[in-house]
Amino acid sequence: MEKGVLKADAGMNALAWNVVGHTYVPKLLSEDAFVWHATIPDGTFVPPHIHPTQDEWIYMLEGELDIEFADEQVKAGAGDTVKMPRGIAHGIFNRSGGTAKCIFGVSPARELYKLFTELDGVSDPAELVRLSALREVNFLPPPDAK
Q1: CB 27 within 8 A of CB 6
Q2: Is the CA virtual torsion 4, 34, 61, 21 positive or negative?
Q3: Distance CA 123, CA 111 (A)
Q4: Shortest CA distance to 38 belongs to which of 14, 65, 67, 73?
Q5: What pLDDT, on the 0 to 100 scale, is given for residue 2?
């Protein structure tokens, strides 16, 4: 990680990715952590998935998200922190009627930065699942495919 200040309207290396209809802007990358700003439009989601080697968290800046764990669904709004431990399936849904903005992080960083680079603009669900599995993010099959 380099020292200094990354301005609010900037991403590392001037990057911004479109991943599953969300805008992800990388803010910090080290061996120990990866942090990005996310703009999540209403009606978009990240299907249930598992990070077997990373803990993930979300700090909500504005808006509201539904987080679905295998055994419960919770709502998160501005100021809330969502904790998604490694090995625990979770899905992220914006059903709020408005845009949500938040800061995501994972620890350790592992391959997620590379994955987002590869997923930028990918719209085919099968390709998203395939690429994600190569970088230690495992999507669950749809409920009717189990």
Answers
A1: yes
A2: positive
A3: 20
A4: 65
A5: 83
Token pair belonging to 11: 């991403």
* Phi, psi for 6 (deg, rounded to 5): -100, 115
**Domains recognised in the chain with CATH numbers:** 12-136 (2.60.120.10)
Query: How far, rounded to the nearest angstrom, does the alpha carbon of residue 42 sit from its chain's CA centroid?
Result: 15
**Shortest CA distance to 104 belongs to which of 141, 51, 145?**
51
At 98-112, the pLDDT tens digits run 999 999 999 999 999
State which residues of the chain have pLDDT below 70.
143-146
Write the CA distances from 94 to 16, 19, 62, integer angstroms: 20, 14, 12
**Residue length of the chain:** 146
